[in-house]
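Collaboration report, partner site 2.

Our partner group contributed sequences for two proteins of shared interest, and the home lab folded both. The records are reproduced in the order in which they were received, starting with the first partner submission.
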Amino acid sequence: MKRRTLLKAMSSLGVIPALSYSSLSRAIVDGGHEGPLLLQIHAEGGWDVTSYCDPKVNQPGERPITTWSDTLDPVGYGGIQFAPFANNAWFAEKYHQQMLVINGVDLQTNSHTTGILHNWSGRNAAGYPALTALFAAHYAPTAPMAYVNFGGFGSTENLISYTKLQGDPGGIAEIVEPNLQGRITDNAGYEDGHPIYFRQPAELSLIEEHRQARLQRLQARGQLAPREAANLQVFSEATRTRGPLKDFAAYLPKAEEIFARDEDTHNNLKAQVQVASSAFAAGVACAADVHMNGFDTHDDHDALHKPLVQLLNESIDLIWTLAETAGYADRLTVVVGSDFARTPEYNSQQGKDHWPIGSVMVMQKAPSWGSRAVGLTDGVQNAIAIDPVSLQADSSSGAIIYPKDVHQQLRQLLGLTDSPLVARFPFNNGAGFQFFGDLS
């Protein structure tokens, strides 16, 4: 049996093979970030929440909304229901206590560009940063890779610079530490757990001496803008011969532990997760956006969506597996979302088109608000107004959930409400939802 066939069979049974990930067991680099962490997953293209976390069965007199509901019922765990589709049952059973599902979020658009902007900034017009950028600028503005972005929405609004990472993790190791013998990708370059370098310590010291001299000459000119001077100093600290960014190379996965691009969906989401986890474990980053695409299934919807959902669930499982291995699970928040959702019916190509009413999933380790779904939709995926406090249906004085309401609550959950940075990007006229209970 091929290795991939075996892994897929094991994952369908809820069994993920154990890998050593020995690099993650290292202590955080000196001066590294040890505070809260945020990872967001963008399922780009518009996921079908009726086959995921807001399951819908076919309604009398309406066109079919899901094919699985011809023979199956939604699967319930705690206060959450999932569709019996792909590997959802395994995923929901394992993680329902760690998650809050927010259904009935009105993205107010069928445009991918606007939906992405709205979902990840909380505003359907340009000018607001991604939550990850805001988070990184608040908690770790001087970390070498405070905000890591693998694609999708990544607006910073000049709060902080992001580190754009794409491609093979081994290639990233070469960029981070080009002097490391073996480049990590062939698992050479280490002796008794310590890195071996191409250049000798005396040579590295000379290089560092000249680098510092150049920095001092630039600073002595007195013509640098404050931000330019600050960025130059941060760059110097990050790239010094023995600094946190150099040490980060030792945390990246070994060659045999790097997940290959998924053959069915052509996504490398698991490899992105591995790199983000390495950055968290090292303490060089505090926020990351990982990204997968393919959810824009206008034809052959079920066949194309199933492997995407399976990969998404497996990748979330990998996130928490690595977080536990590295010892930062209790500091991590995971947010999962998409551009919008898909129509509550199939088109003539057995696909589904764009639909504005979607969902957002939030996860932490052992939260008080876990195993719950909030927000309501009717049988054909229309949003229902709810009371902001009781979260029960209220057609007379209730409110529809918009992305700004989700972001307001996430800001409060993440301890950002009183940050002076947040004051620059307010959300006005919010309904005051209490998705996570009373966080005051």
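Second partner submission, folded after the first:
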Amino acid sequence: MKRCVKCLLPAAVPGADLNAAGVCRPCRDYRPADLGRFETVRVLREKDLQQALQSCRGVGDYDCLVPLSGGKDSVYLIHRLKVDYGLRVLAHTTDIDIGEVAWANIRRAVDKLDVEHLVYRPPMRFYRDLFRWLLMNQEARGAVHTISYVYAPLFEGNALKVAVEKRIPLVLAGYSPGQPIADRMEYEFPPEAIAQVDWTPPELAAAGQFTDEDLARFWNPAHYPPGTRFPRYIAPYHAWKYDQDAIMKKVVELGLIASAKNASPVFSNYPINWLLMYSDLKNLGYNPYAPEFAALIREGKASRRYWGLMAKVVDFITLNKIYLGRHVARHMAWLGLSDADLRITRSSRRDWPESVYQSRATNVLLRPISEEA
């Protein structure tokens, strides 16, 4: 697989456009001088975040809720909020296919930080049916996007439901810069997306295979009475300076995660992600996480040397279903799928209604960098 010699972006990624020297278009277009504009927006977001962290104190049963996946970012986020800011943190985990490494990280971090922790485990029948249908009816951007942007709203919605119930004013997620896609969230979910939008994916409602009870699992503000106060949903790493390698080292130094191996997203990620990567490598010709890590490398937030080796290893073990790639075969058996079932059948769709896009454009804290004056 050809990759950009600078950021490792695979040539197969749409828009990569490697030139004769092997440099991708995003690297050719990248201007370090633009970092000043990024920094201006980051500082605005950091100021807003500081105010939010001050004003959340004593409002509800807890000051904030953090979705805890067992990865380095959510673990370190809880540390910062409790230790550096002195907040009353409620950790919340939706147990959908969380792996052994992530569970070990969760137990260790919760004990070390002495925070309260809620776990919600939905019926696996629903998630088996959901994953199976989505993998057999993928949209054009592939399996990771198709699954993630149905799966993520489920645990985001679970967090919002708990926050409303316990009058928690802030949900603070450990999304790194570049997560999720900018059309869904930059720094903060648009308030309109929480207070006005039904998150039930229309393709599931139209499929005819999911019950009203299944569809009701998605966030829908219409389920709450008028006057309900909804929390803000913010990604602090979109406001703070972010260094992936530094966080991986810090969580081990603090004893929050047992080892550098456990701190690596390769080992702590959801096991089903191996099947999603396998499907995308087959259907798209590249690992769907590559653009995210290429952007971090380009901006100096991740190690090119580390990911230069790891990217090749991950792709190899995924395609050959060995080592951690064994999860590919395990999940295909669980879902009753074959290679031929992993199909792209739908075009891409926007993640929020047009009204939410328009509302985002009026807010400097949420506006994409490309739109800044």
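Feedback sent to the partner group on the second submission included the following. The chain has 17 helices and seven strands. The beta strands are 64-67, 89-94, 116-120, 138-139, 170-172, 232-234, 344-346.
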